[in-house]
Amino acid sequence: MYLEIIDYVYDSSDWDRKDRKHTLSSLLQTCCLFRAFLAPRIFKSLHFNGGQDASESDNPVNPAAFCRALNNQREPAVSLAKHVQECTIADWQSDSDPSTQAIKTSFLDMYCRSLRRLPNLQDLVLCRVLVDDRILKTLGKLSSLNHLRLDNVDFCLTILAADAFTWKKTSPIRTLDWRMNIFTGPDDIDVDKRAAVVTALVDTAELQYLIGSNSAQILPFLSQSPPLLSLTIGALHSTRSFWEALGGIVTLETLTIRIAVFLSEEFSNHQYLPISSLPKLQNLSIPPSLCSLAAQRRIVHLDMVHSVETDQIWGGAFVPLTLTSLPIDHFKNISRITGGIISLQVPLEFFLAGPLCERLPSIQHLGIKEGHDNNSARSDAKRGEGSSFWKSFVEKVSTKWSPALSVTSLTLDLFPSGRRITDVVCTECSYDLELQRELVLNLLVGFPNVTKLEFFAYIVWKQTAERAEWRCSVPSIFEDDVRRDLSTGRYVVKDVDGILRPFLLASDS
């Protein structure tokens, strides 16, 4: 019963922020039992925010008071410090006002000292922070640190100008997430300087997960050949040096490239990645033009829907590049995947180019997208044509090839690129459950063994255990989104089995 009370106060969204904060503080001081239950939760994560007053936070912990007591070795701060596993330092940059800057400096000094007294600190986030000498020294003394995230941080000029890195390295960390301007070019001198500092700072001997905004940041780490399991790149400049360094990571299992920036002379640089390289690669999320990376590799999950290729970047905006290769060429590359691929997400053009499910009979989860950004043909639909657009798509994918017997889960992305058509299809079809139920039955012609189907993330269709009928539901994580959508009155709503009734009633009230 006590745990239920604590769960309700701590996790429920029914509470006003101020009331929740006051109640948690009271419960923490009520008795030893409540403190034993609450302390690990409340003190698990600390936030030192230079741009926010402590009173604005909904966490009952006053970070300044806690750190001051901890640095002075006072109880209960010393005992509670063992519960801290995560810490975020945000918005601590230089200030033009000298008096304000002096105050911020003193507080950051106090927070840096207290970080060293957190014996179980595993995750540290530095967000919009000017990294100086004291922060580098602190990072080198966090012996339990496993995960480090650098989010839009900058470094003092004295650090960038140093001839040699004289600070102590971090303890061997498993995850480095370094985010900066995604549109920085591969020859940017500042990126090279910052990459040199971070590479020298981080002990990569046990680095397994690496996330970077662009390949210029990543390259120095790859050159050290860390034991990476997963690599995620926001924007890839396809240089020969990158592919050659990537080929040396023999442990890599997952590669994700969100945006590939191809200049004409760089287009085929990934040919420098031999087929024998990346022997353990199983999960691949890449732009369609890079699908040859999957050929002759034992890929289990391949996603070519959520990444895009560009040819140039102007002022922070990218321009999608029209594919120069024919869909049939990409079909041939995909069909050469060895082993048993389980999950495949492809643009519609690739699916229609050849019988993928016949060539890859192990596919269980299939995703097909209409109107990928790199597709030269642009779909269009006027008001009132949304349902016809969806029906046409379903007919194409369900009748083009022989029934795909292995597929049990099907996701159809029917919201093509282009603002007007996306708006038409979204408003007319997203909550037309009568239309969706009709299309589910039509899709069974091409996918007779499917038991789960999605046209739209907020609505999931599943076949009952007896395989007698199909029913839909709204995943709990999207309930607020559905409630918000239906409250606008913009959507065509045709309910089935009263699924949307609670959301409609909520929007009416």
Number of strands: 21
**Biggest sheet statistics:** 19 strands, mixed
N-to-C span: 33 Å
Structure classification: alpha/beta
For the residues shown, what is the average pLDDT?
81
| Poorly predicted ranges | 183-187
Instruction: Give the strand content.
Output: 15-25%
Q: C-alpha Rg, in Å?
A: 27 Å
Give a written overview of the molecule:
The structure is a single chain. Helices cover 34% and strands 21% of the residues. It has 19 helices and 21 strands. It has helices at 2-11, 17-28, 32-42, 63-71, 77-80, 98-115, 133-139, 157-161, 189-201, 215-222, 240-246, 327-334, 348-353, 356-359, 386-399, 419-429, 433-443, 479-487, 501-508; strands spanning 45-49, 86-92, 123-131, 147-151, 154-155, 175-179, 209-214, 230-237, 254-261, 283-285, 301-303, 308-314, 317-320, 343-347, 365-369, 409-413, 431-432, 452-456, 459-463, 470-473, 493-494. The protein has a 19-stranded mixed beta sheet that branches. Strands 17-21 form a two-stranded parallel ribbon. Helix 4 crosses helix 6, helix 15 packs across helix 16 and helix 18 (479-487) packs across helix 19 (501-508). It is globular. The relative contact order is 0.05.
Question: What's this, in brief?
Answer:
By secondary structure, the chain is α/β, with parallel strands linked by helices. The protein is built from 19 helices and 21 strands.
